[in-house]
Amino acid sequence: MHIDKGNEIELDFGLAELEKAAEFLKVFSDPTRMKMMAAMYKRERPVCDIAKAAALSHSLASHQLAVMKKYKLVKAERRGKHVFYRLADDCVEQILTVAVNHIREFGE
Question: Tell me: the pLDDT tens digits for 13-47?
Fold first, then answer.
């Protein structure tokens, strides 16, 4: 971000991008979804394991996974009767890691 002439401030990001980023980060702001993402960190898991890690019923876990899938935080793959989920990409893993490392370094 830099200051432009007069009182106007020019942003390096578009306002629409910033609004979408804020929506995206709201998904991260839920402690239950954070537990679920931590369960999938560097590995894929079936819904039943993710539900157990977050102390949720299978149906509540499935609902939360659908929210995360909508925002492209997770990917799913069906194998037989089970659906396995994993974090969508390195970017999602990095956001989770940065958030946790920030808390470890600077506290609450």
Answer: 888 999 999 999 999 999 999 999 999 999 999 99
The span from the CA of 61 to the CA of 101, in Å, is: 26
The backbone torsions φ and ψ at residue 57, rounded to the nearest 5 degrees and listed phi first, read: -70, 160
In total, the chain counts a number of residues equal to 108
Q: What is the CATH number of domain 29-106?
A: 1.10.10.10
- Residues whose CB falls within 8 Å of the CB of residue 33, separated by 6 or more in sequence, listed in order: 27, 64, 67, 68
Tokens of 3: 């200051």
Residue 42 CB burial class (10 angstroms; 0-12, 13-18, ≥19): exposed
* CA distance from start to end of the chain: 27
CA dist 100 and 96 (Å) reads 6
